[in-house]
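Handout, page 2. Input:
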Amino acid sequence: MTQGSRNQNSKLPGGNPAHQECLLQSIERITPQNSFNHAFPVERGTHLSRRGFLKWGTLSFSLLSFLGISRMVQAFLSMGRKEDAPSRFSVGRSEDFPMGGVAKIQGVYLVRDENGLFALKGDCPHLGCSFRWNEAIRLFECPCHGSRFELSGRFVSGPARKPLQHVLLTKNQKNEIIADILKPVPEDFRI
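Output:
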């Protein structure tokens, strides 16, 4: 019996050393031996600590949350946007637009006032959402962020702060009015 065994024997119940030795041998027999020590050696430092697990878990969760939120923000900002349309197109004849009336054709609002016919590009200057005409209050309203504009395109309220963009109107040989949304014009331009 070794010195270590004697120390262990002193901790065993019972005072008889023979009984303690027998008990110790029984414990050694039923204690499973780790047979994997040599077959599958585990190197130190390859395990993931609790702190490391929490750090990587938090980082992964944060990244996935950011990706999910960024998709929601992108969907919100693009809400109300129109599909790409041609930049030049016919909107009809001058007589098709009554005084004070508002017509939307391919993302352009056409308005006739006492000075003539003008066109407003249908994108809100705030973030580019498609706005709509509200006949009940006689204002253009952006459904995305609540900006409002007068019939003339002047800014009234909301986050936009800029007026609506006026676009070029011309007449072709057939006396049709052509809108060109890529060519902005001054606010007082009429045809």
